[in-house]
Amino acid sequence: MMIQDAYLNGVMERVIARNPAEPEFHQAVREVLTSLVPVVAARPEYVREGVIDCLVEPERIIKFRVPWVDDQGIVQVNRGFRVQFNSAIGPYKGGLRFHPSVYEGIIKFLGFEQIFKNSLTGLPIGGGKGGSDFDPKGKSDGEVMRFCQSFMTELFKYIGPDTDVPAGDIGVGAREIGYLFGHYKRLRNEFTGVLTGKGLTYGGSLARTEATGYGLCYFTDNMLRDHGRSFEGATVVISGSGNVATYACQKATAFGAKVVAMSDSNGYVYDPNGIDLALIKRIKEVERKRISEYVKEKSAAQYHEGCRDIWQIPCDIALPCATQNELDGAAAMTLIKNGCYAVAEGANMPCTPEAVSALQAAGVLFAPAKAANAGGVATSALEMSQNSMRFYWTFEEVDEHLQRIMRDLYHNASQAAAQYGMAGDLVAGANIAGFLKVADAMLAYGVV
Ligand code: NDP
Ligand code: 2IT
């Protein structure tokens, strides 16, 4: 699909030529460039000064070998990445993903998205992302520890509390952050806030664990209320059963909704009585087992093999919280047919471009990931603030900041969309509002 501006279309063609075989990165860039068509018309200096050409090229990419020894004494070799995409408005900030599907294109797409998301939070954080093709599933704690230590043995050279501050993402939770932080501290002989999502005994922030899922529901609540709706009494389907999905389920339920389905990469559970979140947490967080275990203890619930069919369950609100491109055009048509009136992205880029177009064309309220899941990284930035102060806020204080950040973010994205002639289009609004702050900082620096 052509972008309706010759200059932006040329940028897109160069991105494809320079980054071959990285479809997720192309997808993320195309969406942003498409949103920028009215911006370059109104502000030609961004084109003249090369801001957009710089924006699509990472400042730095670090790629490294990660050797480690498994429980059988056999040497395993994985690949590690850190993409330091843009530091115009603050130190690089973004999570680490450990999943077998990770390659450079995935980390680039996530790092690119992170630039705009972090800008939207209103806090001083640049964009970065990292990870590895290591699969923590089925590994012992000792194997995960040895992998994390080897990963940090290389990564520590490139990060720091004022340079680059990683955090968690898929496959990286409290356990992995503990091993990574402990090793960084040992290598540098320094106790600094170099990672976020830390445990509460060693510098973590209250409410960071809950923040992405809670923030997603705060954002969605603002969007729903702006259109005369609410979570109260709504039926909700949530994909995934990890960090984001779990706390989205908790907050949606607290807002009066009934969550009837959740999933993992193998399949989904449907519980007409409403998901028992304590049971999900026990299975996924404590026992690290498959979600299919749920139906062994819940006779009214059903398990279906295959996670993608979760969107066939009728719902009012859908919250995709698992992974990229998990909700395609056909799934969007099914949601529309079943009367779904809102979709909010908890995962990064979970809806394909075809799904987004179909949902928007049908008048379904659509909250894009950059805006809707920004509560996680925003609270990471609050963790950095607390580390700098060497002081901690209460859960309620952090949660209040988070609620205000998500409310402001919703209004900023809405207003930017309206200002550029696309009222109601939060995809365009989030891309434009996120872009403007970063682009103006880049303009101020000149060519750097
Ligand atoms: P977790 O590792 O805690 O959970 C991931 C969940 O998604 C699991 O249920 C997992 O199932 C499922 N999943 C992973 N890969 C696939 C796949 N290829 N197909 C189907 N299901 C899959 O990760 P998070 O909850 O942290 O992250 C979920 C999403 O949210 C990601 O897109 C992430 O980038 C995004 N995100 C996370 C933030 C955070 O603060 N953690 C912040 C903002 C966005 P299984 O157990 O079977 O692997
Ligand atoms: O996608 C994301 O925003 C995250 N995984 C969280 C990043 C962070 O630095 O907290």
Radius of gyration: 21 Å
Helix content: 40-55%
Fraction of residues in β-strands: 15-25%
Distance between the termini: 32 Å
Mean pLDDT score, rounded? 98
Question: How many helix segments?
Answer: 18
Count of DSSP E strands? 12
Structural class comes to: alpha/beta
Q: Widest sheet: strand order?
A: 9-8-7-6-10-11-12
Order of helices and strands: HHHHHEEEHEHEHHEHEEHHEEHEHEHHHH
Query: Uncertain spans, ≥5 residues at pLDDT below 50?
Result: none
The ligands found in this model are: NADPH dihydro-nicotinamide-adenine-dinucleotide phosphate, (2Z)-2-iminopentanedioic acid
The biggest beta sheet reads: 7 strands, mixed
- What would the principal axes of the Cα set say about the shape? globular
Task: Write the SSE topology.
Blueprint: H1 6-18, H2 23-35, H3 37-42, H4 45-48, H5 51-55, E1 60-69, E2 75-86, E3 92-98, H6 104-120, E4 126-132, H7 141-155, E5 164-167, H8 174-188, H9 208-226, E6 235-239, H10 243-254, E7 258-263, E8 267-270, H11 277-286, H12 294-297, E9 302-305, E10 317-320, H13 329-337, E11 342-344, H14 353-361, E12 365-367, H15 369-372, H16 375-389, H17 395-419, H18 426-445
Helix pairs in contact: 1-2, 2-6, 2-18, 6-18, 7-8, 9-10, 9-16, 9-17, 13-14, 16-17, 17-18
The structure holds NADPH dihydro-nicotinamide-adenine-dinucleotide phosphate and (2Z)-2-iminopentanedioic acid (2IT).
